[in-house]
Design brief:
CATH superfamily of the largest domain: Translation initiation factor eif-2b, domain 2
Bound molecules: 5-S-methyl-1-O-phosphono-5-thio-D-ribulose
Shape: globular
CATH architecture of the largest domain: 3-Layer(aba) Sandwich
Distance between the termini: 42 Å
Structural class: alpha/beta
CATH topology of the largest domain: Rossmann fold
Strand order of the largest sheet: 8-7-6-9-12-17-18
Radius of gyration: 20 Å
Largest sheet: 7 strands, mixed
CATH class of the largest domain: Alpha Beta
Number of domains: 2
Number of strands: 18
Number of helices: 12
């Protein structure tokens, strides 16, 4: 996507062997890039959310492994780097998926050739993510187009968190259908949930929709149900961090409440995700998907820009109050209208996903 006339991906190889990223902790107040040079740089970037979003976390881990192999390409070095990266964030399964792809490819390669091979494989995963997200967008665009044909005025899409190009390598998952509809001249307007506590909606989704010229309005997290009751939401599309083989979907905390409100109001609710987000080993998402608990400081404090242009962090809770900060929740399959994938729209069920991805579904 373009920022200030320059086309950016979210991650790229630099000419000096480092890996470039956009520092997402500085958005929307400052657009700054960073160089990752070591395994520890990559692990830190994922941990503190300089990069974030399930697909981008996976590709960053792949590049992180390549960076690690520059320092130690031995078998032990490879396995230990993969362990370090796997431990950075627990919920998005794309991380484990990407590391597994890398390990399967790299283990048979001689140590002397591993680092170069790893950079090439990471670049391949990045390219594939772009194409996958483009396809997700094409399938999701058809849903938006169908609704547009039946109504006057823009199609109102509600989204939660950030599942746009800055959560992936380019295009995004949930936002790719919106970009493609907008680019095709289909009138679309986005309700952007602010997404407390880290405000990925207000800070990141609003930033990227604005940069692309897509009409949008930021709303408080609790406004979605009210808007749905009044017919102001035509459909919801969100991203996903881990989908079980039975169609339960983990996404940013608060997604479940939006899905409940959508069900109560007959509003279609879609998750948009690639194959790398599906965990074929799990079936009961509420019981089995690990939910990341983050520092309560993300809840008790907020960062913003003053009218004078300074970026400041302030406390917003009563001093001394404890805070709890589960970062994701699970929406059960029964609340989901469909899963928008690179292969088309699948029912959120074991049978539906098995029909969409027959070569991955387990029969047991
Ligand atoms: O904690 P984050 O910002 O990494 O969470 C991101 C989300 O929940 C996204 O909606 C999800 O990863 C889908 S990304 C295409």
């Amino acid at each position: 996507m373009k920022i200030g006339g320059t086309h950016y991906r979210t991650i790229w190889p630099e000419s000096d062997g480092a890996v470039g990223i956009i520092d997402q902790t500085r958005l929307p107040h400052a657009f700054e890039t960073l160089k990752l040079s070591t395994l520890e740089d990559a692990a830190h970037a994922i941990r503190v959310m300089q990069v974030r979003g399930a697909p981008l976390i996976g590709v960053t881990a792949a590049y992180g492994l390549a960076l690690a192999l520059r320092a130690d390409a031995s078998d032990a070095g490879l396995e230990s780097a993969a362990k370090t990266l796997a431990a950075t964030r627990p919920t998005a399964v794309n991380l484990a998926w990407a590391l597994n792809e890398m390990l399967t490819f790299l283990r048979p390669i001689a140590p002397a050739e591993r680092a170069a091979a790893a950079f090439a494989k990471a670049a391949q995963l990045a390219d594939e993510d772009v194409e996958t997200c483009r396809r997700i967008g094409a399938h999701g665009k058809a849903i938006i187009e169908d609704i547009a044909k039946k109504k006057d005025g823009p199609v109102n899409v509600l989204t939660h968190c950030n599942a746009g190009w800055i959560a992936c390598v380019d295009w995004g998952t949930a936002l790719s259908p919106i970009y493609q509809a907008h680019d095709a001249g289909i009138p679309v307007h986005v309700w952007v949930d602010e997404t407390r506590p880290r405000n990925q909606g207000a800070a990141l989704t609003a930033f990227e929709l604005g940069a692309h010229g897509v009409p949008h309005t930021v709303i408080a997290d609790n406004a979605g149900g009210h808007l749905m009751q009044h017919g102001d939401v035509d459909l919801c599309i969100v991203g996903c961090d881990r989908l079980t083989a039975a169609g339960d979907a983990a996404n940013k905390i608060g997604t479940y409440l939006k899905a409940l409100a959508a069900k109560d109001n007959g509003v279609p609710f879609y998750f948009a995700l690639p194959l790398s987000t599906i965990d074929w080993t799990l079936f009961d998402g509420v019981r089995d998907i690990p939910i990341e608990e983050r520092d309560a400081r993300e809840l008790t404090h907020m960062t913003g820009r003053t009218d004078g242009g300074d970026i400041v962090t302030v406390q917003v809770t009563a001093p001394g109050s404890a805070g709890a900060n589960p970062a994701f929740d699970v929406t059960p399959a029964r609340l989901i209208t469909g899963i928008i994938t690179e292969r088309g729209v699948s029912p959120a069920s074991r049978e539906g996903l098995a029909a969409t991805y027959p070569e991955y579904a387990r029969t047991a």
